[in-house]
Sequence to fold (451 residues):
Amino acid sequence: MTEWIPAVARLRNQLSAVGGGALIPGGKVLTCAHVVNAAVGRKRDAPEWPSGSLSVDFPLQGVNDVAAKVIAWSPLTALGHGDIALLELADDRVTELEPLMLAERVVTADEELATFGFPRNCADGVHKRHLAHAGTLVGGWGQLVDRAQNEHKLQPGFSGCPVLDAAGYVIGVFTQAELAPDVNVGAYIPTARAVAAVQAGAGIALPSLVPGPIDDPGKEIALDTEYYVAKLGSWPAGAVDGADVVPALRTILQKVETSPGYRQRNVPVWATLYRMIGGAYLLHSKLDMGEKVRAALPYLRQSHALWPEQAALAQNISRLESMLRDSSGDVREFLTTVLQILRGPGDPDIPSLVGRMAEPLTGPQMQAQSWLLHQATPNPIWNFLQAVQVMLKKERNIDAEIDVGSELLADGDVDVRVTIGPNVFLWKVDPGRKTFEAGNDLTAGFMRLIT
Fold:
């Protein structure tokens, strides 16, 4: 039988190997951002996207000098945040190598893990076995403990290298080693978080094994929960619709609710499911803003009741209750609340994400659109548009979305267009005077009926 040889890339600076990475399908290498920084001679936590190209090689396969460029970049910002890079290789020789497969799954404490890396004075690399998952660290990274007696200590040369399970699947990316000479532990980034970071940073969906039925129901619940936490956490870069996610999360929750022993042993998982369902409702494409908040709040309150240590969640709930009670709310505050629910309050990327998303939502175009649909008439136009949607379903069996668009005109006015199935409503809004007029006959007749 031919020995299986993992496709682990080596990254070097001018002096020595600085770490590795996993060759994955599509001629790409998944590694750590700090390894790329070391390879190009920058500080470990340099945040800027590396320019130009670099070179990797595959010592186990005898493939040298493969040109690579960075196509996804999530720099290290704090423990548990970032430190992922994706490289694209430009060399036909790579197509002859067997790539490693990513697996987004939960690892148990008794499971033996392994890696292949490049410790000091071992530039060609060494296998390292007898590793085990010790628990979850702050930010969601995993802790590795080394059970070996006579192997190389975990050290920086293993950074970026794949953490492999017994079947050879990549369950994580090694990222940090404890430098104290008498301590042999390290940290790894779970595959689900690495995949989500690439999706969030570059919009690239990496091929990976996703949750599905497995022998141990407890493992299945934990795996499925971790997958959907990563999926929701990829928003807004990842296209996530709560309408698709809520049913799957409620199915997982039902498994927990009908397993008293499991839910009592795993309260954080139980509470996380409630929080994620609440967060998914806030991203639900088929609900308006008030409906989203009303649907989300019961799940968020239950999550906090189960796990009161979620102090930030209590503040998130209070803000949403205030928005619902006052029928108002700042766009930035709402987006911050949603991202904190989905990603956790400590994510350092939240302010910049809010800034990018809020800019187009707070300009004169969107303000005019919002005023027309929700404030221009005593009974909001939006309510009647929803009635049209319901009527189409009831009388003509048409499942129609309410599609809203607007355009800022040269004279400062705003054209607002709403499409519901075969119906197209048009208005012209003067934001300065707070006036509007119908833009077609359908809209004129519609306005006579509702005002």
